[in-house]
Amino acid sequence: MISHEIDFKIFGNDIQFVEIELDPRETVIAEAGAMVYMEQDISFEVKMGDGSTPNQSVMGKLLSAGSRLITGESLFLTHFTNQGQGKSRVAFAAPYPGTIIPIDLNKMGNTLIVQKDGFLCAAMGTKLSVFLNQKLGSALLGGEGFILQKLEGDGMLFIHAGGTVIERQLNNETLRIDTGCVVAFDPSLDFDIEAAGSMKSMVFGGEGLFLATMRGTGKVWLQSMPIRKLVRALSPFGNNTRKEAGSLLGGLFERQ
User: Fold this and answer.
1) Using an 8 Å Cβ cutoff, are 27 and 87 in contact?
2) Strand-strand pairing, 98-104 and 27-31
3) Alpha-carbon torsion (23, 8, 15, 221), positive or negative
4) Model's pTM, two decimal places?
5) Mean of the pLDDT values across residues 22-29?
6) How many domains are contained in the chain?
């Protein structure tokens, strides 16, 4: 199935959203709950699957959609279609602060590997499936780097990342990365997870026990603030806020 060609514009800096312009009868698929606004001629329908294989059997659709549960995503995707006679727009935002990355799959060999929660929206015809990293290190650790998404097609794809995005082109090189900072990469690259170094470095270095290792030739996108780091950074403030709220409520009850 040929992907729909879509025009777009990205707004914002630290908290971005993408506005997509659809021609009549043109469709874009998106992660459930990502829509910010849509113009009056846009209709939407929640479907099980990405719609890349319209003649797929019911069992095939169940297996395809069910595989998304492995990546922690919703079982369903939302399909937005322009039902009007002229151009119409729909906008999508990421679930947390960061950057939206537009990628033309036609220029990426029609395939891209993306972190399990990185997909935002894409042109109709883009196929989403699970990619299991077969490397021993990733399999033993599970989680980050083991279960990823494979996106295939020839249209525009939009993924989201936390913080600032770093785009690197590797030319028969090796890059060692924090395991949570890998957003997407060319499938030609060899991706594994390895120990961070000596036991002293692993325990006291503050960089975690393991690092992701990317080897070969291809492109990789990194994020400066993975969601787990953001949660960890905010948690002390959250705890303090809860304590202060508890003290305030306690004082109020004492006065009663």
Assistant:
1) no
2) unpaired
3) positive
4) 0.77
5) 95
6) 1
